Request: fold
Amino acid sequence: MTFNEGMQIDPDRVSVGGGPGRGGKIALGGGAGGLIVLVLALLLGGDPGSLIGDLTGAQDSQVAQAPGGGLPEHCTDGASANKYVDCRVALTIQSLDSVWAPELPKQTGQRYVEPKVRMFSGAISTGCGNATSAVGPFYCPADQSAYFDVSFFQELVDRFGASGGPLAQEYVVAHEIGHHIQNQLGDIDRAQRDPQGANSAAVRTELQADCYAGLWAHFADKTPAPGSNQPFLKPLSDNDIRDALSAASAVGDDRIQQASRGRVNPEAWTHGSSEQRQKWFLTGYKTGQVKACDTYSAPSVDNPPALR
Reply:
């Protein structure tokens, strides 16, 4: 999926470096990136707290504390978003805003509040605690912010075998903003109440964020950008969808377990299987409906009702 070249990047929509003050615990409902550390640490018997600090976690000297600045000068328009990953993240966020601003109130009656978005490198202090780049992309409900270290996208390819295509990266961004939608609708806390298992609320929460990412893709090439008669993105191709499905599959619990331990244990799942993640993304993509993404009411997360 590529951007229309004339789309302008708002240099102030995304901040780079720095972070807000410290706060409570990190959101374990992180998306594809949070999965890399959190799931591997849990499955292999490690301590995710060693990579995601709380008030006494990462050393102050390692954490970016200064107020965030704007995007680098090379991020100007759709053409730069098609070339540079950091610019792509920024313009994807604007596309997500343009989709959710009308669709959330239309479909739920809830006004869309733009999340804060921060790109960082190394480590950062968040409203949920200190985090390192090893966590990958994640969403913090306490400060309503999504955090991205763009180096993760190459790791997604090199370490987990995902496609390097644009929609694979945009899917990750859309998934994290999906957590923001859950936060607005009052659902994100469900994951903490039932944090592990094949049919757990944690898995259902992550699959719903995948579905919301698909919902964005449904509208992304059709919804005009503010002040324009063109959408941010050019029409999706079959290859674009394959890119997104590749990323969803790459971070499935079963695939990571098999690669790391040589066996699959559904009782330890926190994000869902590769097949489940693909199915729920497709549910959002094919329906464009928030109600179709109700993973909590689905009798089985293996078979989204909307795909039957």
About this structure: The chain has one domain: 32-55+71-307. The chain is about 40% helix and 5% strand. Confidence is low (pLDDT under 50) at residues 19-67.
